[in-house]
UniProtKB/TrEMBL annotation:
PANTHER family for this protein: HAD SUPERFAMILY HYDROLASE-LIKE, TYPE 3, PHOSPHOSERINE PHOSPHATASE
Gene3D superfamilies, alphabetized: 3.30.1240.10, HAD superfamily/HAD-like
Protein name: HAD superfamily hydrolase
One CC-aspect GO term: cytosol
GO MF annotation list: magnesium ion binding; phosphatase activity
Lineage, opening ranks: Bacteria, Bacillati, Bacillota, Bacilli, Lactobacillales
Length: 271
């Protein structure tokens, strides 16, 4: 019996327009009624997920949870109580930011616990953020000095050209001596978290707190930042639009893409 489902958002639960289908909302509500925890496990901050939680019925609910920032923070939805945090050292975040400034075609997102600050988002990126209802602060500073006393959870660089992101990853890993967890997401981001921090570790951390065994966990996703949870869960699931590496490691590949009610298919096949 599966007791916990951790689900990626963008390109998995969310359709291309950023919405969740009515069928999937009903399936999530059925799962919750059966006692199954449905937990968004996303690279986003928990503050940007409140509208989604409202729709699935877990907003401000004690005993319901969100995993955010690629596993950097686990939150109890009641008053957004932070249960677990893994922050990125300021000096490392600043080094990555300064390095990204040298590659002017990159947008930069700096995530603190409650806010996101964005340096030079492209028009395409602004539209993408709008469909995801992400609130952000414009940021155009030569360094991250203003965040020396503010916890930074992660930093990401944005470009829809994957070669630009791959090049930056190579440069960053060559320059930054401290080990990091580096992942790609949404075909537009390269993301940097502290070493060892990822969605899979966080999923198991939450499961342990809830006294749920790893084999009782389902993880569903589509991209490289979902690999860790797909490998860690008792059942790793890929949507049909998942990248080849995700499909390779998934125990189950859905027929449905993110646009075709994937949670409903999962519910019908397993519950």
């Amino acid at each position: 019996m599966y007791k916990l489902i951790v689900s990626d958002l963008d390109e998995t639960l969310l359709r291309d327009d950023g919405s969740v289908s009515q069928q999937d909302l009903q399936s999530i509500q059925k799962l919750t009624a059966q006692g199954v925890k449905f937990v968004p496990n996303s690279g986003r901050g928990f503050a940007s997920m409140q509208n989604l939680l409202q729709k699935i019925g877990t907003v401000n609910q004690d005993g319901q949870y969100v995993i955010s920032y690629n596993g950097g923070v686990i939150v109890n939805n009641y008053q957004n109580q932070v249960l677990v945090n893994h922050y990125l050292d300021w000096s490392i975040a600043n080094q990555l930011y300064l390095l990204a400034l040298q590659q002017p075609n990159l947008g930069i997102h700096v995530y603190t616990l409650n806010d996101v600050y964005i340096y030079k988002p492209s028009a395409d990126e602004l539209n993408y953020l709008k469909t995801r209802q992400v609130q952000y602060h414009d940021f155009d500073e030569p360094n991250l000095n203003q965040f020396k006393e503010t916890p930074i959870v992660k930093i990401i660089m944005e470009n829809t050209d994957q070669t630009q992101l791959a090049d930056f990853k190579t440069r960053a890993l060559a320059k930054v001596e401290t080990p990091l967890t580096v992942t790609f997401s949404s075909n537009r981001y390269v993301e940097f978290n502290p070493a060892g921090i990822d969605k899979g570790r966080a999923a198991l951390e939450l499961a342990a707190k809830l006294q749920i065994k790893p084999e009782e966990v389902i993880a569903i996703g589509d991209n490289s930042n979902d690999l860790s949870m797909i490998k860690a869960a008792g059942l790793g699931v890929s949507v049909q639009n998942g990248i080849p590496e995700v499909k390779k490691h998934a125990n189950l590949i859905l027929d449905a893409t993110n646009n075709e009610n994937p949670i409903t298919e999962l519910y019908q096949r397993l519950f």
